[in-house]
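Supplementary Methods. Inverse-folding protocol.

Structures were first reduced to a discrete structure-token string of length 403. This string, shown here, constituted the complete conditioning input.
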């Protein structure tokens, strides 16, 4: 909701990454922002003002010396009548102009005239990004208070060259814009949180594994909600098909043992929220080769062994976070099982839910939970998993406020 009603002046400069700016406009507008585009001459070589203007549903400003544009809006008003100036893509040339205060076209003039926050998403060949001149310009711009998103590592669009230089994806740019414009309170600023999410995959052989129905939706939502309150969040995620939440550093793992190692590596922390549906057992000796079916031979049996209990490990660790929260997905006797888990696992809170197939909770988008702590049991109404996450993050912030 941060971008709702916000006016964004989007400057598109001349790089192949300009094709992504079309999608960026859609993502910004989806979130309720209005987008007023400015295009350099170079940008118009890559995407047309017609496409940009159609997606932005606004006039596209291209010319510093257009009498019509100057009469209608004027470059000074263009530079100031907005909440954010976003430059995507920002070429090496435009960064150089910005760093040196040049103003020889509409984009650079607007950037010199603005008194609004400026966010740039650079995109260029890795050699250009690593050039001493670009490095000097970037350092100057950072010193001037210009904010950067990217560039990212990866393969370039126009060549097979890899390295740092790729423009951040539209959703990453949107998240950076949201973070920049977000003025909501940050009660968890300075707090570190570790969240686990999703299922684990326990290999049987190189192609088969034991898994469960966890989607990762609840854990990912909690990681995002904690980050929104200012926490520095490490999300350790099992294999899921949903995107990494913005503003969170995500570590991807497959097996329970990998998840435990990643969680321990992320210590120390103030908060641990263990949401993952970790497999209780793994195959004792997973086969290196695919187990073959031979006619007439007996059916293989899988010997299982216990997985590490990550929540319990954290709950009893010498570096135990101040607040340790576990989840209990139960299909029967939810309250008693959750209370027993509180003590056994060394947790401060157990978020208990009934995951009987009839509830549709496992893999679904809604949840109905009970907050089980040493203070008693509190039933929360049926809510979207995002809402459960916000309410839980607020409860965590409250606990820290109380000290
Ligand atoms: O004992 P149970 O699996 O029901 O406990 C659920 C809680 O314990 C969840 O918070 C889950 O993330 C955590 N857990 C864990 N490691 C395991 C099993 C469960 O962290 N091996």
């Amino acid at each position: 909701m941060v971008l709702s009603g916000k006016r964004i002046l989007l400057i598109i400069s001349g790089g192949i990454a300009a094709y992504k700016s079309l999608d960026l406009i859609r993502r910004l507008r989806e979130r309720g922002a209005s987008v007023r585009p400015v295009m350099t001459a170079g940008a118009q070589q890559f995407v047309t003002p017609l496409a940009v203007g159609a997606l932005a549903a606004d006039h596209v400003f291209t010319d510093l010396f257009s009498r019509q544009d100057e009469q209608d809006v004027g470059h000074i008003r263009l530079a100031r009548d907005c909440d954010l100036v976003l430059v995507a893509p920002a070429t090496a040339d435009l960064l150089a102009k910005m760093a040196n205060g040049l103003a020889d076209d509409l984009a650079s003039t607007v950037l010199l005239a603005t008194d609004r926050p400026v966010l740039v998403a650079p995109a260029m060949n890795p050699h250009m990004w690593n050039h001493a001149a670009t490095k000097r310009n970037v350092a100057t711009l950072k010193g001037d208070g210009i904010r950067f998103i990217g560039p990212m590592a990866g393969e370039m669009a126009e060549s097979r060259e890899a390295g740092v230089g790729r423009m951040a994806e539209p959703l990453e740019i949107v998240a950076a814009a949201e973070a920049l414009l977000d003025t909501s309170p940050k009660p968890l600023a300075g707090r570190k949180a570790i969240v686990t999410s999703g299922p684990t995959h326990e290999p049987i052989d190189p192609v088969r594994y034991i898994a469960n129905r966890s989607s990762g939706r609840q854990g990912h939502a909690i990681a995002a909600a904690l980050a929104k309150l200012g926490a520095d969040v490490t999300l350790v995620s099992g294999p899921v098909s949903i995107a990494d939440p913005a503003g969170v550093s995500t570590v991807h793992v497959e097996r329970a043992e990998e998840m435990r190692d990643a969680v321990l590596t992320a210590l120390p922390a103030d908060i641990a929220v263990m949401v993952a549906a970790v497999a209780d057992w793994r195959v004792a000796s997973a086969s290196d080769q695919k187990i073959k079916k031979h006619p007439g031979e007996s059916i293989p049996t899988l010997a299982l062994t216990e997985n590490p209990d990550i929540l319990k490990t954290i709950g009893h660790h010498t570096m135990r976070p101040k607040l340790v929260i576990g989840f209990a997905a139960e299909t029967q006797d939810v309250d008693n099982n959750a209370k027993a888990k509180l003590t056994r696992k060394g947790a401060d809170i157990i978020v208990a839910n009934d995951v009987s197939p009839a509830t549709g909770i496992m893999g679904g988008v809604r949840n109905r939970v009970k907050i089980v702590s040493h203070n008693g049991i509190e039933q929360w109404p049926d809510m979207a998993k995002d809402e459960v996450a916000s309410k839980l993050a607020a409860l965590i912030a409250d606990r820290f406020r109380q000290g």
